[in-house]
Write a structure and sequence with these properties.
Elements (H helix, E strand, L loop, with lengths): L5 H19 L3 E4 L2 E4 L4 H8 L4 E9 L3 E11 L6 E8 L2 E10 L23 H8 L4 E20 L5 E17 L6 E8 L2 E10 L5
Antiparallel strand pairs: 1-2, 3-4, 4-5, 5-6, 7-8, 8-9, 9-10
Length: 210
């Protein structure tokens, strides 16, 4: 039988309690003494946590004028000692709360971001990309329907008699940003879907801003 020292045993119990408390508050955000949860209104989030570091609105539009929902992603940057909080709001209510690594020191206008090309990669959040590299040279955005998966055993015919496979799709807000990193390296085209980088491509060599 393994002997565990009393102090070590106590530390293990405390750690277990902390982990349990953390898991019970999944989907919550604490600001000071106030707690907001999924389902709360945007006004309650503002009252508890104040203005976010970034408000990122999307609007899913379907073909033929269809409408899904108004989405906003609010990012709370609590500094380099705390995790970023990404709060997704759907039609004015909190639908999801995520974390995204540690935050940043306050922006210094006299020292603009210094973008390292090797750090631009898939998996970055839009906020982290902005803090690392600043605003892009160009940007464009569109709402698309992205296939989730295909069920090859189910076929349908359209009104012209053509056979096609039935597949499930989901609305996605896609953005393409281009970064000019100077004349010594290639420009980067960054594809962002629903606030997260999914692809990075190299373009022609950059240039000195005029």
């Amino acid at each position: 039988m393994t002997y565990v020292r009393p102090r070590l045993w106590l530390r293990l119990l405390v750690l277990a309690g902390i982990l349990a408390a953390g898991s019970s508050e999944a989907g919550s955000l604490r600001c000071g003494s106030r707690l907001v949860d999924e389902g709360d209104q945007a006004a309650e989030l503002l009252a508890a946590c104040g203005e976010p570091a970034l408000r990122d609105p999307w609007s899913y539009q379907l073909p033929r004028g269809g409408y899904v929902a108004d989405i906003e992603l609010w990012v709370y940057d609590l500094g380099p000692n705390q995790l970023l909080r990404l709060v997704k709001l759907r039609d004015g209510r909190i639908s999801e709360i995520e974390t995204d690594g540690y935050g940043f020191l306050p922006l210094n206008s006299s020292a603009p971001p210094r973008c390292e090309p090797r750090l631009i990669s898939s998996g970055l959040s839009k906020y982290r990309l902005l803090r690392m590299c600043g605003e892009p040279l160009t940007r464009r955005a569109e709402s698309i329907l992205k296939p989730l998966y295909v069920r090859p055993e189910i076929y349908r015919r359209d009104q012209n008699g053509h056979t096609y496979r039935n597949q499930y799709v989901t609305p996605v807000y896609r953005e393409e940003w281009v970064y000019n990193l100077g004349p010594r390296t290639a420009m980067r085209q960054v594809t962002i879907e629903d606030g997260w980088v999914v692809e990075v491509e190299q373009l022609d060599r950059g240039f000195d801003p005029r």
